[in-house]
Amino acid sequence: MTNKRLYNKPRYITQRGKTFYINFRLPSGTFFRQSLGTDSLKAVEVTMSRLTPFIPLVQNGTMSEETFRAKINGVREMTLEGLNRLLLNILEITIEDADFSSPNSRYYNSTQSLDVLAKQAKTMADVMRSKMVNVDADTASRLWGLDKEFIIPEDLKPSLLDNTKRMIHFHDLQFQAINAFSSGDAPRYEKIMDIFSKEKANIAQAISPCTLAEEEADCPLLSDAWKMFTSEKGKGWASTTAKENQRFYDVLLYVIGDIPVDEITKQHIRKTIGVIKGLPRRNKNPYSEMTLEECIECDVPEDNLLSSQHVEKHLKIYCKRHPTTVWFIPPVAVI
User: What is the pLDDT of residues 275-311, one digit of tens each?
Assistant: First the structure.
């Protein structure tokens, strides 16, 4: 039986019989080879979209083969630590939404009256409590968006259900906090925000500090991931396309900063798109002579704003499903 090299995407994949393998050359001249345990090309594309950014790190010795093998296994099978990480991510987004002083809160510049916000929040809190009572193990993974990308071991399903109920509870608390703030009940609002802080500390403590430090060291920064993407995908770009895509990336970098790609959330993307909607068309004066920062800060007449089609182009680059670009939007389902 021989190995069959697949020349279509994704890269670094061979097929032996019906099974796909990840396969690439190491600096020593030998090959790294491991089965992905599937005959589904679609499953391989999902797996490789997460693993490809780490392959250059293995090839240059920054990441050990053992660590990379662990990541391969982690992609195929969810762990308790992975579930706790997702719960922490959800909690952080929830706290931002509940914190009226946070620019990332969807209510920070709300045009609705406090009375309307209070009534809406009370209704949503009731919905969350009802959802928490009715959720079961079969629907839990779908609420997280895990059902198509991860294998959930049988012994992990009780923890998945427990974390799902905690996630819904956090959303319940979020709407209770919004109701309290909008109703002028400051003591109740502060009490709920204090509960959030304690829950965040408890979840963070449950995650291994050593593993967190290792992932921070292994995961590339946004700027490094962009370089990997453009060095591969950008080879076929025309100069005008390359300049335009670079501008799209520059906005993202300016808004969220050069952070590790596994820390980028949907909240970051929403915030970036909000900034993009206020940008002018750069091919018109005086905006063509302005820096990005000046364009963001200036008051642009509606006739000079980017078209909705151009805004969608930004989002298309950020969400493009290419092996080195999945770092833009992590698979976290927000209720």
Answer: 888 888 887 888 888 888 888 878 888 888 888 888 7
Residue given tokens 């990379």 in the structure block = 68
For residue 198 the two structure tokens come to: 């304690």
CA–CA gap between residue 279 and residue 307 (Å, rounded): 10
- The reported pTM is 0.45
Q: What percent helix, strand, coil does the chain show, rounded to 5?
A: 65, 5, 30
| Residue type, position 269, single letter | I
Rounded CA-CA distance 47/58 in Å is 17
Q: Which of 296, 209, 208, 309 is nearest to 250 (CA)?
A: 296
- For residue 335, being part of any structural domain is answered with no
Bridge partners, 22 (sequence order): 13, 34
State whether 280 and 258 are in the same domain.
yes
CA–CA gap between residue 170 and residue 166 (Å, rounded)? 6
